[in-house]
Amino acid sequence: MNIDELKNTWNEDITDKTPEISIEQQNKIHLPLEKVRKNMRNEFWWIIGIFVFAFLVCSICRPFKLQLYITVLIASMLIVTIFFFSKFFKLYNDISNTELKTYDSLKDLINQLNLNKQYYLSYYISFAPFIVCEMLIVLEFIPWREPLGEMNVALILIVSVIIGLFLLFFCGKYWFHHYYGKYIRHIESLLKELKE
């Protein structure tokens, strides 16, 4: 067997393992990817608007101690958000620069999308400490008719944190499913079609 035959055999093996994706299938994939990108852009601008609004509300809070606590809390939330949105921005760029010509490139894209699903849920769960801080600030600065006892403070804090955690988790799951999950499942179904 000469070198040319060996090269041809090698190239045939490689193309058998990584099937090409037709233009029609690439177009089917690009539609849900565009929807994902559009939703990512919209979410980014909503988050910016929310933080601008939060800082504006914070600027009118009184007394100064309350304003300071809320400003530090919102700034901390902003740092966490910037960290996670840098991960999402990387996916956003990868989606726009992806050449989906082979089965393996599509499989790699699915893995990136699923990894970002975990980032997304982690983003929502990472706000748990902020819920605790918010509740402590609320309990400290809201004027009550009668001073709250230690058991009442503990009960309000524990119940609100538990409810807040469940709300964060389920809202994050629903939000991801509604804005991203259905498109990811559509791409996964196209991947299964290619595999067959």
Structural notes for this entry:
There is one protein chain. The chain has 196 residues and is mainly alpha-helical. It has one domain. Helices cover 86% and strands 0% of the residues. It is built from six helices and no strands. Helix 2 (23-59) runs antiparallel to helix 3. It starts with a helix and ends with a helix. The mean pLDDT is 82.
Topology, element by element:
Blueprint: H1 3-17, H2 23-59, H3 64-97, H4 103-125, H5 128-141, H6 150-195
Transmembrane segments: 44-61, 68-89, 121-142, 154-176
Keywords: Membrane, Transmembrane, Transmembrane helix
Helix/strand class: mainly alpha
Q: Give the tally of structural domains.
A: 1
Order of helices and strands: HHHHHH
Anisotropy-based shape: elongated
> Cα-atom Rg, whole angstroms?
24 Å
> Helix share of residues?
over 70%
Identify low-pLDDT runs: none
